[in-house]
Design goal:
Elements lengths: L3 E6 L4 H12 L3 E8 L10 E5 L13 E4 L5 H4 L2 H21 L4 E5 L11 H14 L5 E6 L3 E2 L11 H13 L10 E2 H11 L5 E6 H4 L2
Helix pairs in contact: 1-6, 3-4
């Protein structure tokens, strides 16, 4: 009998959409609760969509696992403060609420180079979030650190990111010269790695791009 109850934050994003699809197709998952500012396009008997304000989250339903896939860019957000409000504050708020709702394990879509001591603002925020989650009493946590993500953002109504387009082209032309952890990676590969690792995670696990591509 299916028994796992899962929360996904950011299910309308590039990796979040793949996470949602995988969870809904998993026979061991009984129910999925998506959290976002809009309802996912996908509909399913297992899925309950919650439109929320991440700055004022309500109590969440009981869950066994939580997947954090909220993210933006400084360009899209408009400022460093607005970027941090999504990539750090919103993800941490969901993790805190999910923990209170019984979640034992967390999976995070982080980024290559995440380091709370980094001089690069983007990498520093990603690292600070990892550190904050690591200090929380989850039984298991998995931090996925992808390089440039590849996927169809137009389908999601998101603007194309030029860095991702360039990275994808370089990966196809000179992929053999690029170290595995720096090659562009498909969003579905990141989601698949998290979905495989999180349910049985113990302690802290970091998944680098090279490992997720296998």
């Amino acid at each position: 009998m299916p028994s796992r109850i899962v929360i996904v934050a950011g299910a309308t994003g590039l990796v979040g959409r793949e996470l949602l699809s995988g969870l809904l197709a998993d026979p061991s998952v009984a129910a999925v609760h998506s959290l976002g500012r809009r309802v996912p396009a996908e509909q399913h008997p297992k899925l309950t969509a919650h439109v929320v304000d991440f700055a004022a989250l309500p109590d969440l339903p009981h869950a066994d696992e939580v997947y954090l896939a909220l993210g933006t860019t400084i360009k899209v957000a408009g400022s460093q403060a607005a970027f941090r409000a999504v990539d750090y504050d919103a993800n941490l708020a969901v993790a805190t609420a999910a923990l209170a709702a019984g979640a034992k394990r967390v999976g995070l879509v982080s980024a290559m180079g995440a380091d709370s001591k980094s001089k690069v603002f983007y990498s520093r925020v990603k690292g600070e979030l990892e550190d904050a989650l690591a200090a929380m009493p989850f039984e298991g946590m998995v931090f996925a650190r992808p390089s440039l993500l590849v996927g169809d953002r137009e389908v999601l109504g998101q603007p194309t990111r030029q860095g991702e387009v360039l990275g994808s082209v370089l990966g196809k032309v000179a992929g053999f010269l690029i170290p595995a952890n720096y090659k562009p990676i498909d969003a579905s590969a990141v989601a698949s790695a998290l979905l495989s690792a999180v349910p049985s995670a113990q302690g802290r696990t970091v998944l680098l791009s090279g490992a997720m591509r296998r």
